[in-house]
Amino acid sequence: MSAIAFPIPDQGILARRDEIVAGLARLVPPEALITSADERRPYETDALTAYRRLPMAVVLPSTTQEVAAVLKFCGEQGVPVVPRGAGTSLAGGAIPQEDAVVIGVSKMNRILEIDYANRVARVQAGVTNLAVTGEVMAEGFFYAPDPSSQLACSIGGNIGMNSGGAHCLKYGVTTNNVLGVTLVMLDGSIVEIGGAHLDAPGLDILGLIVGSEGQLGIVTEATVRILRAAEGARPVLFGFPTSEQAGEAVAAIIGAGIIPVAMEFMDKPAIEICEAFAHAGYPMDVEALLIIEVEGSDTEMDAQLARIVTIAREHGVKTVKESKSAMEAAAIWKGRKSAFGATGRIADYICMDGTIPTGQLPYVLRRMDEIVKGYGLRVANVFHAGDGNLHPLILYNCNDPVEAQKAEDAGMDILKLCVEVGGCLTGEHGVGIEKRDLMTFQFNPEDLAQQMRVRAVFDQSWLLNPAKVFPLEGRVAA
Amino acid sequence: MTLHVPTTEAQACAIVRSVIDSATPLSIIGGNTRSGLGRPTQTHSTLSSAGLTGITLYEPAEMVIGARAGTPLAEVQKTLADRGQMLPFEPMDHRALLGSEGEPTIGAVAAGNISGPRRINAGAARDSLIGVRLVNGRGEAIKSGGRVMKNVTGLDLVKLVAGSYGTLGFLTEVTFRVLPMPERIVTLVWRGLSDGAGVALRAKGLGSPFEPMAAAHLPARIEAEESLTLLRLENFSDSIDYRTGELALLLGDYGEPERLEGEAAAALWRKIRDAAVFARTSEAVWRLSLKPYDAPQAVAAIKQALPAMRCFYDWGGGLVWLGLPAKADAGAAVIRAAVQPFGGHATLVRAPAAIRATVPVFEPLAEPLMRVSAGIKTSFDPAGIFEPGRMYAGV
């Protein structure tokens, strides 16, 4: 595939590579600097593997001060910088370019402080999402955002992309769960934004940083909220004869004043793929499956489930299957969370991430099917039904360039459809390079220029993760 | 004094464009109930959202409501209540505290990031604000966010605008996510606890699986002769019975709590939400933002230096409302010296304009943040026409 353009590498910077590498070597210990082509190779792409560019050098600092020194140097030298967490971005947010230095935070992986009394944790940016929950689980606490890649993805990357997950219907996304960050700016200054308290003085710069895709600075530490987990949680499977009925049931549950912690939707192709992989006991004779999770004491969960089952029956539910044990519950979630990996076992796929108003669900499902079929391809749908965040997986063969192009075109058509019905291009994966050129479908030139003017406050010369988020043409520097 | 009351976004753009060349500063008002917040500004023209009213979108099943900025908050709340829903963040009404009159608007709730006791669990206004339309200082209509609650498309200008007090632009339309109203609300009340014990009780309650939605502590002689420590639960009725029972057991060391329900409880929480204990007094009023466990210590330090101060705690202790005589710097030096060692900060919410003109109303920012804030202001409003200096000199 070659549809997405990269900036033409700056020959002047490439010509100075030795000098730049020597400069970096003066700032960090030898083990923190990666220069050989072989060792740089793992950093040439992220989870959007169809695109790759070998960076000029990779730096893996261990401290905020080292990050500051490297950023300041790159800023002064006019060298592009691509920040990297764990490299799990599905949008190409961490894909470098040939004239760039990658700054990875993977070595900054310490949990610095857990404060149960005030319900906050201070962690370094390279700590994995799941490690935060792992650290506080024994005390009954957890960190709420739970992207499917949570075993690998980093808190720094989560902040960059404002990651969500299956449980954000109740607990919110990253921006609702981060209270403070340490940000290194392009000039090397180290800024504390927010803190352990609930509101920060002045403009909400923290809210701006979360989701800024590494374009405003590099986050090296974060203070996050930790929450006390419910007494128990129980996922239940609801199989429906049609996607429409499943969609209507979701609307009716919310309409009845019930906010389950999660409501996940899978269509028939996704059910088949995930069941073959996880053996979760998903019903195979239905067109649509909802995984609805309730929380609380056993009695509370029984009561809430009874309400949900009544509503589901009113909407023609065919199968209701409760998890009877922790193992069954884990299998249900394993199936859902491994949807992407399981799909990868049967075909290559691209995973889209648009959000739509949930009322548009039946129409959008039908249209997506038509769009993908129109390209002669197949689609499997898994998504967060409660908030309308779709993840259509478009299946294709990556060794067939024509088919690969068709898959990408189908994906773009689907995202345009999301915008047309009142939704957006990305619900939780970020824009990256993947959706950069579609930004003009969601935003008019004035909207984009305003965003770029804000960006320029932090990086006037477009050095920070420069090929991302905004179309390469028409960039605004101030 | 010129008052501009556009009835369309296009008119608002034209008005802004007409004052850019002369760099005529504009005050921005909705219902004009919160004009006393922030630093006093020197303007001769006012741009009002009063002509931009009406709910533009309400989809109960999608839990989303959109309204033009000048729509009365009460109208939004009534529309939601008719369908058993509500704004998640329990926005404060400033009229009692500021002695203002008029009708608070939904736009001001967004512009001021106005939240209440539920903030501790359900997030602030900024957490529920999912879309805005505004006119920037170039006279351009800009949108950010939208009508869906999961949206990471581009820079999150929604957050910047929330709590910017009109300094970045003139809001024309706002969209919030909403939640179902709980079936039942019960408040547990413990009496006679010290500030420290009150914080410890609430930390234990908030750290339990029983999800208190609000947690306040009213020291002695604020509401009653004795102190009151409050945990509010909201849920289905059967869950309320179970959870209040479990919490009373868990917190048994603090004595058996009373259960408060109905209008009396609602009235008490409104007083907390609106800081009504300071209504119609002459005190200067501050909001202190701290880690809950640090709050009693910071308060004790302030009390030692300024014995006339009175205060109460919301947000489990993370928010302290504090009143003291409105003299000299209104206690600014003492208060900021007391909260800064804990990493907290203080905002002067109510004081005579003369004091707000000299004492920094918002906590002074570190140099790089101040530079960034001024840069953001300029990026939205290059001529400096919107509420110049309302937050900081230059912002």
TrEMBL record, chain A:
<keyword id="KW-0274">FAD</keyword>
<dbReference type="InterPro" id="IPR004113">
    <property type="entry name" value="FAD-bd_oxidored_4_C"/>
</dbReference>
<dbReference type="InterPro" id="IPR006094">
    <property type="entry name" value="Oxid_FAD_bind_N"/>
</dbReference>
<dbReference type="Pfam" id="PF02913">
    <property type="entry name" value="FAD-oxidase_C"/>
</dbReference>
<dbReference type="InterPro" id="IPR016164">
    <property type="entry name" value="FAD-linked_Oxase-like_C"/>
</dbReference>
<keyword id="KW-0560">Oxidoreductase</keyword>
<dbReference type="Pfam" id="PF01565">
    <property type="entry name" value="FAD_binding_4"/>
</dbReference>
<dbReference type="InterPro" id="IPR051914">
    <property type="entry name" value="FAD-linked_OxidoTrans_Type4"/>
</dbReference>
<protein>
    <submittedName>
        <fullName>Glycolate oxidase subunit GlcD</fullName>
    </submittedName>
</protein>
<dbReference type="InterPro" id="IPR016171">
    <property type="entry name" value="Vanillyl_alc_oxidase_C-sub2"/>
</dbReference>
<feature type="domain" description="FAD-binding PCMH-type">
    <location>
        <begin position="51"/>
        <end position="229"/>
    </location>
</feature>
<keyword id="KW-0285">Flavoprotein</keyword>
<dbReference type="GO" id="GO:0071949">
    <property type="term" value="F:FAD binding"/>
</dbReference>
<dbReference type="GO" id="GO:0016491">
    <property type="term" value="F:oxidoreductase activity"/>
</dbReference>
<dbReference type="InterPro" id="IPR016169">
    <property type="entry name" value="FAD-bd_PCMH_sub2"/>
</dbReference>
<dbReference type="InterPro" id="IPR036318">
    <property type="entry name" value="FAD-bd_PCMH-like_sf"/>
</dbReference>
<dbReference type="InterPro" id="IPR016166">
    <property type="entry name" value="FAD-bd_PCMH"/>
</dbReference>
TrEMBL record, chain B:
<feature type="domain" description="FAD-binding PCMH-type">
    <location>
        <begin position="1"/>
        <end position="181"/>
    </location>
</feature>
<dbReference type="GO" id="GO:0071949">
    <property type="term" value="F:FAD binding"/>
</dbReference>
<dbReference type="Pfam" id="PF01565">
    <property type="entry name" value="FAD_binding_4"/>
</dbReference>
<dbReference type="GO" id="GO:0003824">
    <property type="term" value="F:catalytic activity"/>
</dbReference>
<dbReference type="InterPro" id="IPR006094">
    <property type="entry name" value="Oxid_FAD_bind_N"/>
</dbReference>
<dbReference type="InterPro" id="IPR016164">
    <property type="entry name" value="FAD-linked_Oxase-like_C"/>
</dbReference>
<dbReference type="InterPro" id="IPR016169">
    <property type="entry name" value="FAD-bd_PCMH_sub2"/>
</dbReference>
<dbReference type="InterPro" id="IPR036318">
    <property type="entry name" value="FAD-bd_PCMH-like_sf"/>
</dbReference>
<protein>
    <submittedName>
        <fullName>2-hydroxy-acid oxidase</fullName>
    </submittedName>
</protein>
<keyword id="KW-0285">Flavoprotein</keyword>
<keyword id="KW-0274">FAD</keyword>
<dbReference type="InterPro" id="IPR016166">
    <property type="entry name" value="FAD-bd_PCMH"/>
</dbReference>
